[in-house]
What we know:
Elements: H1 3-23, H2 28-50, H3 55-77, H4 82-88, H5 95-106, H6 110-138, H7 143-146
Helix pairs in contact: 1-2, 1-4, 2-3, 2-4, 3-4, 3-6, 5-6
Amino acid sequence: MTVETLLLNALFGFVATLGFAVLFNVPRYTLFWCAVVGAGGHLIRYVLRNSGVSNEVATFFGAFFVGVVGYAFAVRYQMPRTAFTVSGIITMVPGIQAYEVMVLFSQGNIPGGLEFGVRAGLVTGAIASGLGAARIITDVDWRHLRGG
């Protein structure tokens, strides 16, 4: 893993997140920061995956980063956290795996389709778990459950 590869992946995550933030009509003054959040989450996931961590665990930590940092920007700009987190997790959505499920099922390869379906479901669960864990840590409404 070289510095050039890391910078290129950060750029990919930035551009993809920026595009989806524009698509989701995020206010202009927050577009850059939405893209930074998404690029950071994508980069964490990329580095962990290339370090031998499973796709699901790497996705959890990438989504956790998006949730925590997205919350910080949401507070700073007095916006809903979803403005930063929804566009930030787009690069982690298992679209290729979901597509493979349809292709394999249409070819009659049921076991292969089920395998990709389970993998896509686990990654989706990791995204939800990472964002949920970040919400539990950062949301004041959860404090009464923690005794604080």
